[in-house]
């Protein structure tokens, strides 16, 4: 069964630079560093067959297998067939335990008459084999080499192996890198990959063969993903045999499923040639590392909460749409109930407040209507669209209540400034005139009138009216003498 988290699209804001760097590094290693390996291996194996090394080493290996029985080794040896085949050398070359005995002259000693011819041939074959990049960096099951714990996770067996790993890396990297940031993401990736390799070494110690590939590190991202998202609901794509679909699930529940699936396959299909052990170890390592990150508070919670916020915004939009539907049918009671719930849930929304105003308007409740207008005016006038909506509410209110609404001087000044921003100059001038008559000492009044006069054509009626307002109503302002002088020169 395949499960992929697919709940965050690519964007410029969350582009996973570290993930793409890892993909490029893996592709570079496969194409340019591992690229010549096949030809080098073929050359080494040709030499192995031509020199007759197989005829010497095959009986030794069969005898060694009898003393160290291993089902997997025996099955592979049986599939290789002819003892003279260079493929025997390939199997032997990946059996670290046997090679240690062979190279230590403990299986064929200097006293053996074949030794003088065998030893230089074996040394030359080892030299030819060691020219392969993979051989210098692959991690053998029965050898603990710290450098290879890192290098082996950048190697791949073939293009299909590379493509599958890189696809999963991109999908998981987008989410985990966004939650951790590039530096911490790389640390979890590399340390999680090492953890997966160590678990694999522990599980397979004494076996023949070697491990390579990024799947252990990618599995660490799976474990980290589950812990980082925790109890948040995530959207995943799943595929079981011929059935597939999208579902929402608590992220943490994926951890026992993914880990259990790998452990089941490790026990049931351990000889399938797939690194289930590295996968299981990677998932556990990534989960532990992510728990440490969360304990230290190093995760990017804003990124993690984006889905929750998006879900809340969608629920808000759906409820608002339903309330508008009720309003369209004049079902005021049902609409008001939904809108009040939205308004109390917060944060304050202009669309909700305007809809509540419409409820009071349709219900013909003067007190409720005044309260609804006040609640609309509480919201900040952040942009032109907001100003237009607020102005439309006030214009409509004046149709019902010609005397309008008693505004605080500071609020009236703010509205006048906003009306000018959207080009409603006549209404703005009216507000300024009313404000000057009732609160001429309002801070900022003279300054706004002066600023607006500078925008008008010199000598125009608007220019004169705004300067005259300063002279008549704000004579104590520092701008009054300037306004008086300009008027006298016009």
UniProtKB/TrEMBL annotation:
Which UniProt keyword terms apply here?
Hydrolase, Membrane, Protease, Transmembrane, Transmembrane helix
Could you tell me which InterPro entries the record lists for this protein?
Peptidase_S54_rhomboid_dom, Rhomboid-like_sf, Rhomboid_protease_S54
Q: Name one GO biological process term.
A: proteolysis
Q: Is Hydrolase one of the keywords?
A: yes
Q: How does it sit in the membrane?
A: Multi-pass membrane protein
- Coarse class of the primary localization is membrane
Q: Pfam families per the record?
A: Rhomboid (PF01694)
User: Which top-level group of life is the source organism from?
Assistant: Bacteria
| ATP-binding in keyword set | no
Q: Which GO terms describe its molecular function?
A: peptidase activity
SUPFAM superfamilies found in the cross-reference section: Rhomboid-like
Location within or outside the cell? Membrane
- Segments crossing the lipid bilayer: 12-33, 159-176, 183-203, 209-229, 236-258
Using the record's annotation, list all stretches that form the Peptidase S54 rhomboid domain: 146-293
Recorded hits in PANTHER family, A to Z, give:
PRESENILIN-ASSOCIATED RHOMBOID-LIKE PROTEIN, MITOCHONDRIAL, RHOMBOID PROTEASE
- Name the family the entry cites: Belongs to the peptidase S54 family.
Q: What protein name is recorded for this chain? A: Rhomboid family intramembrane serine protease
């Amino acid at each position: 069964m395949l499960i992929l988290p697919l709940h965050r699209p690519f964007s410029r804001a969350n582009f996973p630079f570290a993930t793409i760097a890892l993909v490029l590094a893996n592709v570079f290693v496969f194409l340019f560093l591992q690229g010549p390996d096949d030809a080098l291996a073929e050359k080494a194996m040709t030499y192995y067959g031509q020199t007759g090394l197989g005829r010497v080493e095959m009986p030794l290996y069969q005898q060694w297998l009898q003393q160290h029985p291993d089902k997997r080794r025996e099955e592979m040896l049986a599939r290789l067939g002819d003892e003279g085949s260079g493929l025997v050398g390939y199997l032997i070359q990946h059996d670290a335990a046997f090679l240690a005995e062979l190279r230590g002259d403990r299986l064929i000693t200097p006293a053996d008459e074949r030794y003088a011819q065998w030893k230089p041939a074996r040394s030359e074959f080892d030299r030819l084999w060691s020219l392969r990049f993979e051989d210098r960096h692959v991690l053998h099951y029965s050898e603990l080499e710290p450098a290879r714990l890192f290098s082996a996770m950048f190697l791949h067996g073939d293009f299909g192996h590379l493509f599958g790993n890189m696809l999963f890396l991109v999908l998981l990297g987008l989410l985990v890198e966004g939650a951790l940031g590039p530096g911490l993401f790389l640390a979890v990736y590399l340390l999680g990959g090492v953890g997966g390799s160590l678990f694999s070494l522990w599980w397979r110690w004494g076996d023949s063969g070697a491990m390579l590939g990024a799947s252990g590190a990618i599995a660490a991202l799976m474990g980290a993903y589950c812990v980082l998202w925790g109890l948040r609901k995530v959207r995943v794509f799943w595929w079981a045999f011929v059935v597939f679909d999208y579902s929402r699930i608590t992220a943490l529940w994926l951890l026992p499923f993914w880990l259990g699936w790998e452990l089941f396959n490790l026990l049931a299909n351990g000889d399938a040639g797939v690194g289930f052990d590295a996968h299981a170890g990677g998932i556990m390592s990534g989960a532990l590392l992510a728990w440490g990150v969360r304990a230290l508070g190093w995760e990017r919670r804003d990124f993690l909460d984006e889905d929750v916020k998006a879900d809340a915004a969608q629920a808000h939009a759906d409820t608002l749409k339903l309330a508008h539907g009720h309003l369209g049918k004049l079902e005021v009671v049902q609409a008001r109930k939904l809108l009040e719930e939205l308004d109390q849930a917060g944060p304050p929304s202009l669309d909700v407040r305007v809809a509540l105003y419409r409820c009071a308007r349709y219900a013909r409740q003067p007190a409720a209507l005044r309260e609804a207008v006040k609640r609309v005016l509480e919201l900040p006038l952040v942009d032109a669209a907001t100003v237009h909506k607020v102005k439309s509410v006030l214009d409509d209110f004046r149709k019902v209540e010609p005397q309008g609404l008693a505004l605080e001087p500071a609020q009236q000044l703010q509205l006048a400034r906003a009306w000018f921003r959207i080009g409603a100059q006549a209404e703005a001038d009216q507000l300024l005139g009313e404000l000057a008559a009732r609160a001429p000492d309002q801070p900022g009044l003279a300054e706004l009138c002066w600023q607006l006069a500078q925008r008008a054509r010199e000598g125009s009626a608007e220019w004169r009216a705004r300067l005259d307002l300063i002279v008549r109503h704000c004579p104590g302002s520092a701008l009054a003498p300037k306004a008086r002088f300009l008027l006298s020169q016009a």
